[in-house]
Design goal:
With 364 residues, this protein is of the alpha+beta class. The protein contains 13 helices and 5 strands. A 5-stranded mixed β-sheet has the order 2-3-1-4-5, with helices on both faces.
């Protein structure tokens, strides 16, 4: 469950970060469109019957003032979201409340148009993508109080007649804000469940991939992993092929459980010696394979001898009477040879080492 939570949080923060950038861009574009509309409406407002004393006064109140406010809000939001000392979550609030402020400012400047108050619904819905219920609630409360005060007490727009019908319309829009908040919360909860399900599926797929590439008995990589390793490795690979001497006789004498214990022990020793330059694989049965990159032949031989000695020392006297350890065949790779050909030579070297009574390590 901890893995699920970590993966879920990682996905959530990644999506929030991407969305915050898009959210900011939408706010900048929205502000630009509003200012353009203000300029255009400058030529049509008189036709609609709005009272103002002079054209210059109208330009100041409904074009320059809101345009300057939009610009300052956008600059402030941009600067705050670029500051490293401000937390990730706080930046989400800054962008969300910044857009909400632009919506309120638009309502303040032109409350004669009741439909403008519905712009807060957009600001609320956009917070849902952050999947933060508190952010959505805070933005809704901010818009609700702001639009309530503007709708009932604002006197900036002198042409607005706030009669009973107007106030009923404002109240209807305020109820729509609350409904938008509840709907957004439902979306957030559903999205959280979806992301958790996706996270579980990813973990399950990773587990399946791991199971497909790891030998369950020894915890070493299997031949599937070996093929992937060979296909992706760009340096020459030196292979060391090993197997347990007289392993079949040990199985027949002491049973398969004892045989499995030997393989597990060899697997533990192999993992101990694994590094960024040494990869260990269970090749099949009692055969183990070590792939060396950026390692000279002398060091390869030393490591293989250490593995031989450690495995031999781990054997009990009864088993050592039959099995004297492991044999090793080594083949050094080169740029002129395919890895599968190097692997074939390592297998041949192992065959020679096993056939010899005195030789337990052969290099071809």
């Amino acid at each position: 469950m901890n893995d699920n939570n970590l993966l879920f949080k990682k996905e959530k923060y990644s999506l929030q970060n991407k969305w915050r950038r898009q959210h900011s861009i939408l706010m900048y574009i929205f502000s630009g469109i509003l200012f353009a509309v203000e300029v255009i409406m400058m030529f049509f407002i008189p036709i609609l019957g709005v009272n103002y004393s002079s054209f210059q006064q109208y330009v100041f109140k409904y074009v320059i003032t809101p345009g300057l406010c939009y610009f300052l809000i956008n600059i402030l939001v941009y600067l705050l979201t670029q500051m490293d000392f401000i937390s990730f979550s706080a930046k989400n609030y800054i962008v969300s409340l910044g857009l909400a402020t632009i919506c309120l400012l638009m309502c303040f400047m032109h409350d004669i148009f009741v439909v403008i108050f519905a712009s807060g619904i957009l600001a609320i819905f956009l917070t849902a993508i952050y999947s933060e219920i508190l952010l959505t609630v805070v933005t809704t409360i901010y818009l609700f109080i702001g639009e309530l005060l503007i709708g009932f007490f604002n006197t900036w727009d002198s042409g607005c007649i706030k009669d009973v019908t107007y106030r009923i319309d404002i109240c209807s829009i305020l109820l729509m804000l609350v409904g938008s908040c509840l709907f957004s919360i439902a979306i957030i909860r559903w999205e959280e469940k979806r992301l958790i399900w996706i996270s579980k599926e990813k973990i399950h797929m990773n587990q399946l991939q791991k199971q497909a590439s790891i030998d369950p008995l020894t915890n070493l990589q299997n031949r599937r992993s070996l093929r992937k390793f060979i296909d992706t490795e760009t340096f020459p690979i030196t292979f060391a092929m090993t197997d347990v001497n007289k392993f079949k006789i040990v199985n027949d004498t002491f049973g398969h459980n004892i045989g499995d214990e030997l393989l597990v022990k060899l697997g533990e020793i192999s993992i101990k010696h694994s590094s960024d330059k040494i990869s260990a694989f269970r090749y099949g049965g009692d055969e183990f394979l070590y792939a060396f990159t950026n390692t000279n032949l002398k060091d390869v031989q030393k490591i293989c001898e250490k593995i031989q000695n450690e495995f031999s020392d781990s054997l009990s006297n009864e088993i050592r009477a039959i099995c004297d350890g492991i044999s090793v065949g080594i083949a050094e790779g080169s740029h002129d040879e395919l890895p599968r050909d190097t692997l074939h030579r390592a297998d041949e070297a192992l065959y020679i080492a096993k056939k010899s009574d005195s030789l337990k390590l052969k290099i071809l």
